[in-house]
Amino acid sequence: MQPKALAQDRLTPVTQEPSDAMDHAFEQPRATPMTRTVMKKYLEDLKKRSPRIPLPEMTEDEKKAGLEDPRAVTYESRLRKQYLPDSPTSSYLPFSGSASNNPQSASRMGPPEPLLTLDYGFKVRLFWIAARANNCQYCLGHQESKLLGVGMTEDEIAALDCDWELFPEKEQVAFSLAKRLTLEPHLISDEDIDRCRPFYSEAQLIEMIGSIAGNNAINRWKEGAGIPQSTNGGGFGNRDRTAGSTSEIENHTYLTTTSGKYAERPSIVVDVESSEISDTSLAQVSPTLFRRAPLETREVVNKQLAAVSSRTPRFALADEATTQKVFGDLIPDGKMEQWHRLLAHFPVAGKRFATGMHSSSQADMLSPALQSQINWVVARQDRAWYAASLALEDLHASGLSDKQIDLLDQNLDKPVSGLEERDRLLLNVARKLCASPIVLTDKDVALAVEIAGPRAVTQTIHYAAYRAAFDRITEASGLSHTVR
């Protein structure tokens, strides 16, 4: 399942300015900038991005509200109010924390989790790496601004892309975990976790995984909906960067100066094929890659699902009484799963994530049957066998045979016999978004909007983003489940 247009694997020199590249991106994924110089141009140019989901004309009440608070009528605010009235996207990030010097951010994040102990700036660095790996330039821009806010210099931020030796070993191993969990959740191994254990407690590892998983979710929300870059750095970067200054500036820009040491060094975070390039310093832009291998046969899938039933979780799980106390009625029919017991270690953050997942499942345009199909499609892309076993159980309960389930593994870029066109288009949005958020194109979204409508597409993006996070939490933790 690798569309020809996404199978490019050679680096190409810059032949277009970022704005020109975006004009031609309707049917192609946006290219991946290889160097910091080009990346900054992309961050700045994303302010001119055209959103993907259409909205109705602004009402008089909205116009009045906008005069009092312009944030209330931004594209993203209106998108959520129109199509996700009861599903706050901030619940993607309960493990990320917030800057103590940014009350606006803290208010959006909700009540703090007292058991989170990892440094906020460190988790922003992990967010930066996840966003860079996903080529989510909206989130990348916000993290740039946050990192400046916590005191990092331009060159220190640049080093996140190409010079990890500048950072202590305990951060380097976490950076590696963030990159792998973002790009290759199916390859997370005991060794990946064990490299981190000398530096972090089990609770901190769960916190780190939850934070990175949430970063991946919000990357998919921002990219999926095509949200334009904030003009003020998302409220994090609208201050003078002169040391010691707190004066407001009107026009936040990402086109700041990077020293010659880092300006043109190629990224070690993004997923590109450079084996045939003799001098990677000459490569400024790479076609965005779709690395996932063709999906396995049913025989291989069955073996993997059997193996996941005998896995031993990598982290201790909370007992059932504690878990029930934390989640309460969020555990349907008393069906307590290992993921509940894992997240119960964090009563505030864990419940908030579970509440967000539950809220996304109440989407009025996504039937329970379609949600189970999305769960399967997303889990198969991530090779998230725990999530796949849960999805398979639900699909069987809905009456689907293995033959019908196998239809979901086909190339969804074209009509599939036995699958309704509306569902195929929504499933294709979820499939591409979760395999790699940047390979979902404007055309993919436009086709789905035309047939399924903007509300259904928005809800699909939101729901699938949660599933991407769920896959990463459960696979990194090595959870076990037996299909009943």
Structural notes for this entry:
With 484 residues, this protein is an all-alpha fold. The chain is 50% helix and 1% strand. It is built from 21 helices and 2 strands. It has helices spanning 18-23, 36-45, 60-68, 75-83, 103-109, 120-133, 137-149, 154-162, 169-183, 190-194, 202-225, 298-308, 320-327, 338-343, 347-360, 368-382, 385-397, 402-406, 421-435, 442-452, 454-476; strands at 32-33, 285-286. It has a two-stranded antiparallel sheet. Helix 16 crosses helix 21. The longest helix is centred in the middle third of the chain and has 24 residues, at 202-225. Mean pLDDT is 86; it is low at 1-24, 238-250 and 275-282.
Question: What topology does this entry show?
Answer:
Elements: H1 18-23, E1 32-33, H2 36-45, H3 60-68, H4 75-83, H5 103-109, H6 120-133, H7 137-149, H8 154-162, H9 169-183, H10 190-194, H11 202-225, E2 285-286, H12 298-308, H13 320-327, H14 338-343, H15 347-360, H16 368-382, H17 385-397, H18 402-406, H19 421-435, H20 442-452, H21 454-476
Helix pairs in contact: 2-7, 6-7, 6-9, 6-11, 9-11, 11-21, 16-17, 16-19, 16-21, 19-20, 19-21, 20-21
